[in-house]
Write a structure and sequence with these properties.
Keywords: Magnesium, Transferase. Its EC number is 2.7.8.28. This is 2-phospho-L-lactate transferase. By secondary structure, the protein is α/β, with parallel strands linked by helices. It has two domains: about 210 residues, CofD-like domains (Rossmann fold, 3-Layer(aba) Sandwich); about 40 residues, no CATH class. Helices cover about 35% and strands about 20% of the residues. The protein has 13 helices and 14 strands. A seven-stranded parallel beta sheet has the order 5-2-1-9-10-13-14, with helices on both faces. A three-stranded antiparallel beta sheet has the order 7-6-8. Strand 6 and strand 7 form a beta hairpin. Helix 1 runs parallel beside helix 2 and helix 1 crosses helix 13. The termini are close together. Bound molecules: guanosine-5'-diphosphate (GDP) and calcium ion (CA). Calcium ion (CA) binds next to helix 2.
Length: about 350
Protein backbone atom coordinates (compact mmCIF):
# COMPACT_ATOMS: atom_id res chain seq x y z
CA UNK A 1 0.00 0.00 0.00
CA UNK A 2 1.01 3.59 -0.50
CA UNK A 3 3.17 5.83 1.65
CA UNK A 4 1.34 5.99 4.97
CA UNK A 5 1.26 2.24 5.45
CA UNK A 6 -2.39 1.56 6.12
CA UNK A 7 -4.20 4.39 4.33
CA UNK A 8 -6.47 3.41 1.48
CA UNK A 9 -6.81 6.47 -0.73
CA UNK A 10 -7.87 4.48 -3.79
CA UNK A 11 -9.47 1.08 -4.34
CA UNK A 12 -10.12 -0.50 -7.73
CA UNK A 13 -12.75 -3.23 -8.13
CA UNK A 14 -13.19 -5.47 -11.21
CA UNK A 15 -16.92 -6.12 -11.26
CA UNK A 16 -19.69 -8.04 -12.98
CA UNK A 17 -23.35 -7.20 -12.35
CA UNK A 18 -25.39 -8.31 -9.38
CA UNK A 19 -22.71 -9.90 -7.17
CA UNK A 20 -20.24 -7.11 -7.83
CA UNK A 21 -22.80 -4.36 -7.30
CA UNK A 22 -23.94 -5.77 -3.95
CA UNK A 23 -20.34 -6.06 -2.83
CA UNK A 24 -19.66 -2.46 -3.87
CA UNK A 25 -22.69 -1.28 -1.91
CA UNK A 26 -21.24 -2.95 1.21
CA UNK A 27 -17.74 -1.64 0.52
CA UNK A 28 -18.99 1.96 0.23
CA UNK A 29 -21.06 1.50 3.38
CA UNK A 30 -17.97 0.15 5.18
CA UNK A 31 -15.85 3.07 3.98
CA UNK A 32 -18.43 5.59 5.19
CA UNK A 33 -18.86 3.96 8.60
CA UNK A 34 -15.15 3.36 9.18
CA UNK A 35 -15.58 -0.42 9.18
CA UNK A 36 -12.93 -0.87 6.47
CA UNK A 37 -9.43 -0.59 7.96
CA UNK A 38 -7.46 2.31 6.46
CA UNK A 39 -10.45 3.50 4.45
CA UNK A 40 -12.74 6.47 4.90
CA UNK A 41 -15.55 8.31 3.15
CA UNK A 42 -12.77 9.98 1.11
CA UNK A 43 -11.42 6.74 -0.32
CA UNK A 44 -11.86 6.90 -4.11
CA UNK A 45 -13.37 3.74 -5.55
CA UNK A 46 -12.95 2.96 -9.24
CA UNK A 47 -15.02 0.18 -10.76
CA UNK A 48 -13.90 -1.56 -13.95
CA UNK A 49 -17.10 -3.25 -15.13
CA UNK A 50 -17.57 -6.22 -17.43
CA UNK A 51 -19.06 -5.29 -20.80
CA UNK A 52 -19.02 -8.74 -22.41
CA UNK A 53 -22.72 -9.24 -21.44
CA UNK A 54 -23.59 -6.28 -23.67
CA UNK A 55 -25.72 -6.66 -26.73
CA UNK A 56 -27.83 -4.87 -29.28
CA UNK A 57 -31.55 -5.52 -29.04
CA UNK A 58 -34.44 -3.74 -30.84
CA UNK A 59 -31.85 -1.25 -32.09
CA UNK A 60 -30.66 -0.43 -28.57
CA UNK A 61 -27.26 -0.95 -26.97
CA UNK A 62 -27.81 -2.62 -23.59
CA UNK A 63 -24.99 -2.89 -21.02
CA UNK A 64 -26.38 -5.04 -18.19
CA UNK A 65 -23.41 -5.01 -15.83
CA UNK A 66 -22.64 -1.29 -16.15
CA UNK A 67 -26.32 -0.54 -15.54
CA UNK A 68 -26.64 -2.92 -12.59
CA UNK A 69 -23.70 -1.22 -10.87
CA UNK A 70 -24.98 2.26 -11.77
CA UNK A 71 -28.58 1.64 -10.70
CA UNK A 72 -27.59 -0.26 -7.53
CA UNK A 73 -25.18 2.40 -6.28
CA UNK A 74 -27.39 5.24 -7.55
CA UNK A 75 -30.41 3.84 -5.68
CA UNK A 76 -32.48 3.19 -8.79
CA UNK A 77 -32.31 -0.61 -8.83
CA UNK A 78 -35.20 -3.01 -8.40
CA UNK A 79 -33.79 -4.61 -5.28
CA UNK A 80 -35.77 -7.83 -5.48
CA UNK A 81 -35.04 -8.56 -9.13
CA UNK A 82 -31.44 -7.41 -8.74
CA UNK A 83 -31.42 -5.74 -12.18
CA UNK A 84 -33.38 -3.02 -13.96
CA UNK A 85 -35.25 -0.03 -12.58
CA UNK A 86 -37.40 0.18 -9.53
CA UNK A 87 -41.15 0.78 -10.10
CA UNK A 88 -40.73 -0.44 -13.66
CA UNK A 89 -43.54 -0.80 -16.19
CA UNK A 90 -43.46 -2.97 -19.31
CA UNK A 91 -45.68 -1.27 -21.91
CA UNK A 92 -43.03 -1.12 -24.64
CA UNK A 93 -42.29 -4.83 -24.20
CA UNK A 94 -46.01 -5.69 -24.46
CA UNK A 95 -46.38 -3.53 -27.57
CA UNK A 96 -43.36 -5.15 -29.24
CA UNK A 97 -44.88 -8.57 -28.51
CA UNK A 98 -48.15 -7.43 -30.09
CA UNK A 99 -46.18 -6.67 -33.26
CA UNK A 100 -44.66 -10.16 -33.07
CA UNK A 101 -41.18 -8.71 -32.82
CA UNK A 102 -38.59 -11.23 -31.58
CA UNK A 103 -37.04 -11.84 -29.17
CA UNK A 104 -39.87 -11.62 -26.68
CA UNK A 105 -37.93 -13.28 -23.86
CA UNK A 106 -35.66 -10.33 -23.09
CA UNK A 107 -37.24 -7.89 -20.66
CA UNK A 108 -36.72 -4.23 -21.44
CA UNK A 109 -38.64 -2.07 -18.99
CA UNK A 110 -40.00 1.34 -20.00
CA UNK A 111 -37.80 3.30 -17.58
CA UNK A 112 -34.77 1.23 -18.47
CA UNK A 113 -35.35 1.91 -22.17
CA UNK A 114 -34.69 5.60 -21.57
CA UNK A 115 -31.16 4.72 -20.42
CA UNK A 116 -30.61 2.59 -23.52
CA UNK A 117 -31.97 5.33 -25.79
CA UNK A 118 -29.57 7.89 -24.33
CA UNK A 119 -26.67 5.43 -24.64
CA UNK A 120 -27.52 4.39 -28.20
CA UNK A 121 -27.97 7.95 -29.43
CA UNK A 122 -24.66 9.04 -27.90
CA UNK A 123 -22.81 6.05 -29.38
CA UNK A 124 -24.32 6.78 -32.78
CA UNK A 125 -23.24 10.42 -32.44
CA UNK A 126 -19.66 9.18 -32.00
CA UNK A 127 -19.13 9.20 -28.25
CA UNK A 128 -17.29 6.25 -26.73
CA UNK A 129 -18.89 3.89 -24.22
CA UNK A 130 -16.65 5.44 -21.53
CA UNK A 131 -18.01 8.90 -22.32
CA UNK A 132 -21.58 7.62 -22.39
CA UNK A 133 -21.12 5.89 -19.04
CA UNK A 134 -19.75 9.07 -17.51
CA UNK A 135 -22.72 11.01 -18.85
CA UNK A 136 -25.25 8.49 -17.48
CA UNK A 137 -23.47 8.52 -14.10
CA UNK A 138 -23.91 12.28 -13.87
CA UNK A 139 -27.56 11.56 -13.21
CA UNK A 140 -27.08 8.52 -10.98
CA UNK A 141 -24.11 9.70 -8.88
CA UNK A 142 -23.05 6.16 -7.95
CA UNK A 143 -20.28 7.37 -5.63
CA UNK A 144 -17.63 5.50 -7.62
CA UNK A 145 -15.80 6.16 -10.88
CA UNK A 146 -17.44 3.65 -13.22
CA UNK A 147 -15.38 2.54 -16.22
CA UNK A 148 -16.29 -0.03 -18.87
CA UNK A 149 -13.50 -2.60 -19.25
CA UNK A 150 -13.23 -1.61 -22.92
CA UNK A 151 -14.84 0.78 -25.40
CA UNK A 152 -14.62 -1.95 -28.04
CA UNK A 153 -17.37 -4.44 -28.81
CA UNK A 154 -16.70 -7.65 -26.85
CA UNK A 155 -19.51 -10.20 -26.49
CA UNK A 156 -19.63 -13.54 -24.73
CA UNK A 157 -21.21 -16.35 -26.74
CA UNK A 158 -21.96 -19.84 -25.48
CA UNK A 159 -21.83 -23.08 -27.47
CA UNK A 160 -24.74 -25.43 -26.66
CA UNK A 161 -25.84 -28.78 -28.08
CA UNK A 162 -28.14 -28.57 -31.11
CA UNK A 163 -29.24 -31.87 -32.65
CA UNK A 164 -30.62 -30.00 -35.71
CA UNK A 165 -27.25 -28.58 -36.66
CA UNK A 166 -24.76 -30.63 -38.75
CA UNK A 167 -22.03 -29.88 -36.20
CA UNK A 168 -24.29 -30.94 -33.33
CA UNK A 169 -23.97 -27.57 -31.64
CA UNK A 170 -24.85 -23.94 -32.06
CA UNK A 171 -23.42 -20.75 -30.65
CA UNK A 172 -25.78 -18.29 -28.97
CA UNK A 173 -25.32 -14.93 -27.32
CA UNK A 174 -24.72 -15.02 -23.57
CA UNK A 175 -28.09 -13.28 -23.01
CA UNK A 176 -29.95 -16.01 -24.84
CA UNK A 177 -28.18 -18.68 -22.76
CA UNK A 178 -28.95 -16.89 -19.51
CA UNK A 179 -32.34 -15.27 -20.06
CA UNK A 180 -34.05 -17.64 -22.51
CA UNK A 181 -32.42 -20.94 -21.51
CA UNK A 182 -31.89 -20.01 -17.82
CA UNK A 183 -28.44 -21.64 -18.08
CA UNK A 184 -30.23 -24.98 -17.78
CA UNK A 185 -28.42 -26.75 -20.60
CA UNK A 186 -24.68 -27.46 -20.42
CA UNK A 187 -22.37 -24.78 -21.81
CA UNK A 188 -20.02 -26.69 -24.11
CA UNK A 189 -17.72 -23.71 -24.62
CA UNK A 190 -17.47 -20.02 -23.78
CA UNK A 191 -16.37 -17.81 -26.69
CA UNK A 192 -15.57 -14.17 -26.05
CA UNK A 193 -16.03 -12.57 -29.46
CA UNK A 194 -13.86 -9.52 -30.13
CA UNK A 195 -11.78 -9.92 -27.00
CA UNK A 196 -8.38 -10.42 -28.62
CA UNK A 197 -8.70 -7.20 -30.62
CA UNK A 198 -10.08 -5.13 -27.73
CA UNK A 199 -8.11 -2.56 -25.79
CA UNK A 200 -8.75 -1.47 -22.20
CA UNK A 201 -10.89 1.67 -21.92
CA UNK A 202 -9.12 4.92 -21.00
CA UNK A 203 -8.10 4.93 -17.34
CA UNK A 204 -8.48 1.19 -16.78
CA UNK A 205 -4.80 0.21 -16.69
CA UNK A 206 -3.94 3.29 -14.61
CA UNK A 207 -6.75 2.43 -12.17
CA UNK A 208 -5.16 -0.98 -11.65
CA UNK A 209 -1.58 0.22 -11.47
CA UNK A 210 -1.97 3.49 -9.53
CA UNK A 211 -4.08 2.32 -6.63
CA UNK A 212 -3.73 1.09 -3.06
CA UNK A 213 -5.79 -2.08 -3.47
CA UNK A 214 -7.34 -4.17 -6.25
CA UNK A 215 -10.42 -6.24 -5.38
CA UNK A 216 -12.04 -9.10 -7.28
CA UNK A 217 -15.55 -9.10 -5.77
CA UNK A 218 -17.79 -12.20 -5.70
CA UNK A 219 -18.59 -11.91 -9.42
CA UNK A 220 -18.75 -14.69 -11.97
CA UNK A 221 -15.12 -15.86 -12.43
CA UNK A 222 -15.64 -16.79 -16.09
CA UNK A 223 -18.14 -14.44 -17.73
CA UNK A 224 -17.57 -11.36 -15.53
CA UNK A 225 -14.09 -11.19 -13.98
CA UNK A 226 -12.69 -13.65 -16.55
CA UNK A 227 -13.77 -11.48 -19.47
CA UNK A 228 -12.33 -8.34 -17.83
CA UNK A 229 -8.97 -10.05 -17.21
CA UNK A 230 -9.08 -11.35 -20.80
CA UNK A 231 -8.93 -7.88 -22.37
CA UNK A 232 -5.32 -7.73 -23.57
CA UNK A 233 -3.24 -5.81 -21.04
CA UNK A 234 -5.57 -6.07 -18.06
CA UNK A 235 -4.34 -9.40 -16.65
CA UNK A 236 -0.73 -8.21 -16.94
CA UNK A 237 -1.62 -4.97 -15.16
CA UNK A 238 -3.17 -6.94 -12.27
CA UNK A 239 -0.16 -9.26 -12.13
CA UNK A 240 2.24 -6.33 -12.06
CA UNK A 241 0.51 -3.74 -9.90
CA UNK A 242 2.41 -2.70 -6.77
CA UNK A 243 -0.95 -2.76 -4.91
CA UNK A 244 -2.14 -5.93 -3.15
CA UNK A 245 -4.84 -7.91 -4.96
CA UNK A 246 -7.57 -9.66 -2.98
CA UNK A 247 -10.58 -11.68 -4.11
CA UNK A 248 -13.85 -12.79 -2.51
CA UNK A 249 -15.25 -16.20 -3.43
CA UNK A 250 -18.57 -16.29 -5.32
CA UNK A 251 -18.74 -20.01 -4.56
CA UNK A 252 -20.09 -20.88 -1.13
CA UNK A 253 -20.48 -24.50 -0.04
CA UNK A 254 -19.68 -25.84 -3.50
CA UNK A 255 -22.16 -23.80 -5.52
CA UNK A 256 -22.96 -20.23 -6.54
CA UNK A 257 -25.33 -18.17 -4.44
CA UNK A 258 -27.19 -16.69 -7.43
CA UNK A 259 -26.50 -16.83 -11.11
CA UNK A 260 -24.66 -19.44 -13.11
CA UNK A 261 -21.07 -19.58 -11.92
CA UNK A 262 -21.43 -23.37 -11.52
CA UNK A 263 -22.33 -23.87 -15.20
CA UNK A 264 -19.59 -21.53 -16.41
CA UNK A 265 -16.87 -23.06 -14.23
CA UNK A 266 -17.87 -26.54 -15.33
CA UNK A 267 -17.65 -25.52 -18.98
CA UNK A 268 -14.08 -24.28 -18.57
CA UNK A 269 -13.03 -27.29 -16.45
CA UNK A 270 -12.60 -25.52 -13.10
CA UNK A 271 -13.70 -27.32 -9.92
CA UNK A 272 -16.82 -25.67 -8.49
CA UNK A 273 -15.48 -24.85 -5.04
CA UNK A 274 -14.03 -21.83 -3.26
CA UNK A 275 -10.56 -23.39 -3.54
CA UNK A 276 -11.17 -24.30 -7.20
CA UNK A 277 -11.89 -20.68 -8.10
CA UNK A 278 -9.06 -19.33 -5.92
CA UNK A 279 -6.50 -21.58 -7.56
CA UNK A 280 -8.02 -20.88 -11.00
CA UNK A 281 -7.21 -17.19 -10.44
CA UNK A 282 -3.93 -18.29 -8.89
CA UNK A 283 -1.38 -16.60 -6.61
CA UNK A 284 0.68 -13.77 -8.10
CA UNK A 285 3.72 -15.47 -6.61
CA UNK A 286 2.88 -18.40 -8.95
CA UNK A 287 1.94 -16.46 -12.12
CA UNK A 288 -1.70 -15.77 -11.17
CA UNK A 289 -3.57 -12.58 -10.23
CA UNK A 290 -4.24 -12.80 -6.48
CA UNK A 291 -2.40 -12.26 -3.21
CA UNK A 292 -5.35 -13.17 -0.98
CA UNK A 293 -8.61 -15.11 -1.32
CA UNK A 294 -11.50 -14.92 1.09
CA UNK A 295 -13.74 -17.98 1.41
CA UNK A 296 -16.95 -18.58 3.34
CA UNK A 297 -16.74 -19.88 6.90
CA UNK A 298 -18.37 -23.11 5.73
CA UNK A 299 -15.45 -23.64 3.36
CA UNK A 300 -12.80 -23.23 6.08
CA UNK A 301 -11.44 -26.69 5.30
CA UNK A 302 -10.23 -25.34 1.93
CA UNK A 303 -7.95 -22.68 3.46
CA UNK A 304 -4.99 -25.05 3.79
CA UNK A 305 -5.06 -25.99 0.09
CA UNK A 306 -5.22 -22.31 -0.87
CA UNK A 307 -2.24 -21.49 1.34
CA UNK A 308 -0.43 -24.40 -0.24
CA UNK A 309 -1.07 -22.72 -3.61
CA UNK A 310 0.67 -19.56 -2.36
CA UNK A 311 -2.37 -17.50 -1.37
CA UNK A 312 -3.21 -15.79 1.87
CA UNK A 313 -6.60 -17.27 2.69
CA UNK A 314 -9.17 -16.85 5.42
CA UNK A 315 -12.69 -18.08 6.08
CA UNK A 316 -15.37 -15.56 7.15
CA UNK A 317 -19.14 -15.31 6.56
CA UNK A 318 -19.59 -14.43 2.88
CA UNK A 319 -23.36 -14.04 2.52
CA UNK A 320 -24.22 -10.52 1.38
CA UNK A 321 -27.36 -10.38 3.49
CA UNK A 322 -27.22 -6.62 4.08
CA UNK A 323 -24.89 -3.59 4.05
CA UNK A 324 -23.31 -4.35 7.45
CA UNK A 325 -22.61 -8.00 6.64
CA UNK A 326 -21.17 -7.03 3.26
CA UNK A 327 -19.09 -4.22 4.77
CA UNK A 328 -17.63 -6.78 7.18
CA UNK A 329 -16.68 -8.97 4.18
CA UNK A 330 -14.98 -6.01 2.52
CA UNK A 331 -13.15 -5.22 5.77
CA UNK A 332 -11.95 -8.83 6.04
CA UNK A 333 -10.73 -8.72 2.43
CA UNK A 334 -8.73 -5.54 3.14
CA UNK A 335 -7.22 -6.98 6.33
CA UNK A 336 -6.24 -10.21 4.59
CA UNK A 337 -3.75 -8.46 2.31
CA UNK A 338 -2.75 -5.58 4.58
CA UNK A 339 1.01 -5.39 5.10
CA UNK A 340 1.98 -7.56 8.07
P1 LIG B 1 -23.95 -10.96 -12.91
O1 LIG B 1 -23.17 -10.16 -13.89
O2 LIG B 1 -25.28 -10.38 -12.61
O3 LIG B 1 -23.92 -12.42 -13.15
O4 LIG B 1 -23.19 -10.73 -11.56
P2 LIG B 1 -21.75 -11.07 -11.07
O5 LIG B 1 -20.92 -11.76 -12.06
O6 LIG B 1 -21.21 -9.85 -10.39
O7 LIG B 1 -22.16 -11.99 -9.85
C1 LIG B 1 -22.73 -13.22 -9.84
C2 LIG B 1 -22.00 -13.97 -8.74
O8 LIG B 1 -22.25 -13.39 -7.46
C3 LIG B 1 -22.46 -15.39 -8.66
O9 LIG B 1 -21.39 -16.22 -9.03
C4 LIG B 1 -22.83 -15.60 -7.19
O10 LIG B 1 -22.31 -16.78 -6.69
C5 LIG B 1 -22.21 -14.41 -6.49
N1 LIG B 1 -22.99 -14.02 -5.33
C6 LIG B 1 -24.24 -13.51 -5.31
N2 LIG B 1 -24.65 -13.29 -4.04
C7 LIG B 1 -23.62 -13.67 -3.24
C8 LIG B 1 -23.42 -13.68 -1.81
O11 LIG B 1 -24.29 -13.31 -1.01
N3 LIG B 1 -22.20 -14.14 -1.36
C9 LIG B 1 -21.22 -14.55 -2.22
N4 LIG B 1 -20.06 -14.96 -1.69
N5 LIG B 1 -21.39 -14.57 -3.55
C10 LIG B 1 -22.56 -14.13 -4.06
CA1 LIG C 1 -23.26 -10.05 -15.91
Amino acid sequence: MSSSASTLSRITVLSGGVGGARFLQGLLHGLRTGAVPGGSADTEVTVVANTADDWWIHGLKVCPDLDTVMYTLGDGIDVERGWGRREETWSAKTELEAYGVEPTWFGLGDRDIATHLVRTQMLEAGYTLSQVTEALCRRWQPGVRLLPMSDDRVETHIAVADPDSPSGRKVIHFQEYWVRLHAEVPAEAVLVVGQDAATPAPGVLEAITDTDLVVLPPSNPVVSVGTILGVPGIRDAVRGTPAPVVGVSPIVGGTHVHGMARQMLTSVGVEVSAAGVGTHYGARSHGGVLDGWLVDEGDAAEVAALEEAGLRARAVPLMMSGPDATAAMAAAAVSLVAPQ
